[in-house]
Amino acid sequence: MLQAAVHLICGSSDQLPLQISLVTDEVLPGGILFSLEKTIPLGYYDAGCCMQRLIVQILFEGENKMKNQPPSAGAVALAAGAALLAAAAGASALEIKTGNDKVELQLKGHVNRALMYVDDGNESNVFHVDNTNSETRVGLYGKLAATETLTIGSNFELQWQANPSDKVSMEEESISGDFKERLAEIYFDCKKGGKFWLGRGKMTSDDSSEADLSGTELAGNSGVTDVGGGFMFHDSKAAPVAIGEKPKGSTVKDVFNSMDGTRYNRVRYDTPKLAGFSLGASAAEQDIADVSLKHSSELAGMKVEGVLTWYTPGDLGDYSQINGSLSALFNSGFNLTAAGGTRDMNNMPAGGDDPVFMYGKVGYICKELFSLGSTAFSVDYGVFENAKKQDIEQKGTATGVQMVQNLSDWSTELFAAYRGYTLEDKTSADYDDITIVMGGARFKF
């Protein structure tokens, strides 16, 4: 494996030299000394009005020095890439150009990583995870003011998770990351006519159980399976699992379901707001459909958000459901959040009961605890019944404590959370509790 050292020398005195280290696995018969000198107008990168000279030297280390040997195609490509990287790094800002000067385009996203300790009563471990409360993602967001009242735009967003916090388990500690599409949609936003979406994106039911003004939703919310969803409840009365066999039982995701919506390929329409209320409807592939009534307002300094949704999964399930959430933030920083839902099963097992859930959170946002930014604290509690097994009176409870510290000037949030899960049903099983402690950071760009 060969290493390359890249040195950037800027022509203006107000720029500091930049050194970048690159690595290549290209196998060469000997060392190659290759120099590339390129003049680039940094106006392309919105960095100023002057031309700067970039001198990029790539020194491949080898046993022999073969200066007279022509550079390989890989060396040339590496040098060119280094030159562009150095130019962008030396610039004060990177401006994204589009094919149409009228289009405003933004590149943004965040990285959200954490350490998570889990004790399922049978064993314990520490996991390096991507926090599924807000998955690592990147996106391009474009819009164009077509008229004074009409904006046309598009959203393209991908997420990438290595070790998702809702999927890792004692049996699978490492899960390779891959890109997954979140948004690929076009919208038409008319001030007086409402907003219409076409493509992959949020149904109106997405986040319908997660109206949350606590400031701690990054650490924990009504979607309690986002952290620890892959871990299994162990029956302390059951015989030990034989070596080589996988344990069987209910996971956290099997027991807890907040009935929140998600993203599909769909069409969606939201009416304009009237007195803080708006009505939305969406229809997706496989006959999925939903309708939502949403509200957001501020009154005497108190902020309120709420959602009430009807949803049917079409070909993906034989039921319909009603769910919603409501959150209020007071001037003092004190806040209250509640969520709930019920599902009407068309093919209920004999003696079964409909799935229901209830969730509540109490929080406080302090803006003066640290000068770096606001600090939010909360505690929450949820009861989830008959989520998957309706005929055994399955009941799970989730208890949590959350803290989020904003570092406003650094575009960073630090978070810590505790979550405890319990399970009981009408069988003779005695399930061990699951305890999770997580701490991490989210950086936005």
Layout of helices and strands, plus pairs?
Layout: E1 2-8, E2 18-24, E3 33-41, E4 51-59, H1 73-90, E5 104-119, E6 124-130, E7 137-145, E8 150-161, E9 178-190, E10 194-202, H2 252-255, E11 263-270, E12 277-284, E13 288-299, E14 302-312, E15 319-329, E16 334-345, E17 356-370, E18 373-385, E19 395-407, E20 412-424, E21 434-444
Antiparallel strand pairs: 1-2, 3-4, 5-6, 5-7, 5-21, 7-8, 8-9, 9-10, 10-11, 11-12, 12-13, 13-14, 14-15, 15-16, 16-17, 17-18, 18-19, 19-20, 20-21
Tell me about this structure.
- This protein has 445 residues and is mainly beta.
- It folds into two domains: 89 residues, no CATH class; 341 residues, Porin.
- Strand 11 and strand 12 form a beta hairpin.
- The protein is globular, with a radius of gyration of 27 Å.
- 33% of the residues are buried.
- The N terminus is likely disordered.
**What oligomerization state is this entry in?**
single chain
- Taking all Cα atoms into account, the compactness measure Rg is 27 Å
CATH architecture term of the largest domain: Beta Barrel
Q: How would you sum up the major sheet?
A: 16 strands, antiparallel, barrel
How many independent structural domains? 2
CATH superfamily of the largest domain: Porin
What is the averaged pLDDT score? 84
CATH class of the largest domain: Mainly Beta
Q: What structural class is derived from the secondary structure elements? A: mainly beta
> What is the CATH fold-level name of the largest domain?
Porin
> Strand-residue fraction?
over 45%
Portion of residues in helices?
under 10%
Query: In order across it, which strands form the biggest sheet?
Result: 5-7-8-9-10-11-12-13-14-15-16-17-18-19-20-21
Which consecutive residue ranges, at least 5 long each, have pLDDT under 50? 1-93
Give the topology string: H per helix, E per strand: EEEEHEEEEEEHEEEEEEEEEEE
> What is the count of helical runs?
2
